[in-house]
Design brief:
Helix content is 38%, strand content 17%. By secondary structure, the chain is of the alpha/beta class. It is globular and about 55 Å long. The chain starts with a strand and ends in a 7-residue tail after the last helix. The structure holds uridine-5'-diphosphate-4-deoxy-4-fluoro-alpha-D-galactose.
């Protein structure tokens, strides 16, 4: 199929583009490189360097691509930043995203696959979290993604635009070629691996007084290659709806650091810091719906394997795409 991928130069987008191409699809990547990297775009894809804010350029690009499917990764995605600068999140993730929805309708795109997040749930009433839990975001990032989900519903009802929404839990790991390189790195696993590489002195632990067994936050880490495979399944005709993507296992910050120490064989010093604003204590997915309805089967569900793939990539690219 002809697939138009926004944010295809970013972390999850780059791996998804690689998997799409490996599966024989034709891919156009649309990215403004504000967070992504040109070197993260598979050289088999067509690349358009432009921004979602440029409505005309966007429409032209979707039309030129002959897009049958749009996969929309492009977004700002940092919880902490969204707590300081909500406007950036509502403008980019909601207002500019709307330009893409309009282009999809105008060009007769058949399916829209959207990268959403478990941050749409806020602090869940129960874990593992199913898709029918209340959606009550506690940060503007989660709110902006929820608003886009709601816009999609209306576009389906009114314009017949079919969609699959994926609520990712914590993406981690790497493919052989593409990995995680944010200009400002805030994510746990890459930060800990920087310590293992000798590029940072300590693993910072944000909050040790959460209501969890060891006092640190619990997350569900899911391999980026497994996220990519879900997108390919979502493109099949007849698939639509909202799906969590996670492994169903929760790991605390301390457990993640321990696993990184085992995988890298390094001693990792830790430094306890105050809580980070906007962090829910515990997020763990039930991805039963994706398994049953999409036949999604994660290939790398063990945290150790996820961390090992990230470690291999970071060792090969200690300075990310700038090395
Ligand atoms: N953390 C640390 N030290 C660090 C980095 C993170 O203790 O150096 C902690 C955080 O406070 C949090 C946990 O590790 O408790 C995971 O933090 P990440 O920044 O790796 O991931 P988040 O859970 O904050 O956010 C990620 C994505 C979001 C997504 C969210 C859903 O960035 O886009 O997962 O959980 F919405």
């Amino acid at each position: 199929m002809k697939v138009f991928v926004t944010g295809g130069a970013g972390y999850i987008g780059s791996v998804c583009v690689e998997e799409l191409l490996n599966s024989g699809h034709q891919v156009t990547v649309f990215d403004n490189l504000s967070e992504g990297h040109r070197l993260a775009v598979d050289n088999r894809a067509v690349f358009v360097h432009a921004s979602l804010s440029d409505k005309e350029r966007l429409l032209e690009a979707v039309r030129d691509a002959g897009a049958e499917v749009i996969i929309h990764f492009a977004a700002h995605a940092l919880v902490v930043e969204s707590m300081a600068n909500p406007g950036k999140y509502f403008r980019n993730n909601v207002a500019y995203g709307l330009n893409l929805l309009d282009a999809a309708v105008e060009c007769g795109v058949k399916k829209f696959v959207f990268s959403s997040t478990c941050a749409t749930y806020g602090v869940p009433e129960q874990v593992p979290m199913t898709e029918d839990l209340p959606l009550r975001p506690i940060n503007p990032y989660g709110q902006s993604k929820l608003m886009f989900e709601q816009m999609l519903e209306w576009y389906r009802r009114i314009h017949g635009l079919d969609f699959v929404v994926f609520r990712y839990f914590n993406a981690a790991g790497a493919s052989k070629q593409f990995g995680e390189h944010h200009r400002l790195e805030t994510h746990l696993i890459p930060n800990v691996l920087r310590v293992a590489l000798g590029l940072a002195p300590d693993c910072e632990i944000f909050g040790t007084d959460y209501p969890t067994p060891d006092g640190t936050c619990i997350r569900d880490y899911v391999h980026v290659v497994d996220l990519a495979s879900a997108h390919i399944l979502a493109m099949k005709p007849g698939k639509s709806g909202f799906y969590n993507l996670g492994n169903g296992d929760g790991y605390s910050v301390r457990q993640v650091i321990q696993t990184c120490a085992q995988v890298t064989g390094k001693e990792l010093r830790t430094l306890e810091k105050p809580r980070r604003p906007g962090d829910p204590p515990r997020l763990v997915a039930s991805a039963e719906k994706a398994r049953l309805e999409l036949n999604w089967q994660p290939a790398f569900s063990r945290l150790e394997d996820i961390v090992r793939s990230a470690w291999q990539w970071h060792q090969a690219h200690p300075h990310g795409y700038t090395s």
